[in-house]
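Appendix B, record 7
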Amino acid sequence: MTADRARAHARVTKTLRDLGPAKLLPAEQARIRLAADTLVFSAEPGAGTLAARADVTALCRHLAGSGRWLPERADELLADLWACGPSELDALAAAA
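Structure tokens (predicted):
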């Protein structure tokens, strides 16, 4: 895990703390938290990170599509979640 990834995880946690109870159902909060944890603790891209990203992408599309969240807010959350995860460069560095 890098400092940048840890900061991204902190931003997701802050979003859940600030908006979660008012804008997200408990199960939705849990899905986002699980995805963030999966991504931040993954050493390299793989099936788990792909599944986590797919799940939160579907959730954010639902939140924006239903009008519960603005599309920009959903995009911000997705960007923070993506930043939690390993990049291909992280995987190359770990292999070296």
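Remarks on this record: The chain is about 80% helix and 0% strand. The CA atoms of residues 34 and 52 lie 8 Å apart.
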